[in-house]
Amino acid sequence: MTSTSHDRDLRAQLETLTTEAFRPELADVDRLPTLDIARLMNGEDASVAGAVAEQVPVIAAAIDAVAERMARGGRLVYAGAGTAGRLGVLDASECPPTFNTDPARVVGLIAGGPDALVTSVEGAEDSRELAEADLAALGLTADDTVVGVSASGRTPYAVGAVAYARARGALTVGLACNRGSALAAAAEHGIEVVVGPEFLTGSTRLKAGTAQKLVLNMLSTITMIRLGKTYGNLMVDVRASNEKLRARSRRIVAQATGAADDDVERALTATDGEVKHAILVILADVDGPTAARLLAESDGHLRAALARAGDGA
């Protein structure tokens, strides 16, 4: 195929995508007062959560499948290009400080590698082979999950990642912002959040990016809830790596137990700052090593460990 005919085919594809559609009513937006433009953008953004809501049952089914595999030791891998890839890397990078996960358990792959986080890597998103190479380096297993992320739903890097992962028995999820996407079709769990045409024509860092961020938040957060990384809505697996997080750790233990500050400090000292262990020390009236044993026997689930302690385990 010549480059001219390839360009024509690509243009024809883009013209069918909702995310690329032109909004004639916004053709003079650059002539409006700043306040009016900001109000228009805000109104557009307000529609995103509703679009995500339509896909919540599909998202929930994907989360249950992801959590089942991660409970067996599998990994959650995001793969995307441009904004989609950056959002995946962002979500993955925030799991260790939030949930004390091993950085290798939630991984963000972006077409073009780390340089693509801050600059455009020409042609990277068009390469299925690049996605296959990036995933081959991880040595995928059937317990792993690969989530391809692409606003258009046609990006070769994301589609290639999902196709490669599925062929190797991994769980696959496709997150797109157009109906009938190749990405959703390639995955076992297809999530299509249709946010409509963008405020700036084709600028999918806007509504589509916001939608992807919301869905990725749900995928990782609810998966971690299912894995016992929280107690109620408290981040009991938070890693206290700086003074703010150390203060948060003390606050979480106090909120979970109602204990006095001195008791909170003693429990955290007895458990080397491990929030979940400290809560168990206070609520079950056990020592640090016993708390560690109970949690290990309960696969890290604090409620289960409390039940075991109550049963005299």
From TrEMBL:
InterPro entries: Etherase_MurQ, Glucokinase_regulatory_CS, MURQ/GCKR, SIS_dom, SIS_dom_sf. Residues 66-229 form the SIS domain. It holds the Pfam family GKRP_SIS_N. The keyword Membrane does not apply. SUPFAM superfamilies: SIS domain. Pathway: Amino-sugar metabolism; N-acetylmuramate degradation. Keywords: Carbohydrate metabolism, Lyase. The active site is at E94, E125. Its EC number is 4.2.1.126. A lyase-type mechanism (elimination/hydration) is suggested for the cleavage of the lactyl ether bond of MurNAc 6-phosphate, with the formation of an alpha,beta-unsaturated aldehyde intermediate with (E)-stereochemistry, followed by the syn addition of water to give product. Homodimer. Specifically catalyzes the cleavage of the D-lactyl ether substituent of MurNAc 6-phosphate, producing GlcNAc 6-phosphate and D-lactate. This is N-acetylmuramic acid 6-phosphate etherase. It comes from Streptomyces pimonensis. The gene is murQ.
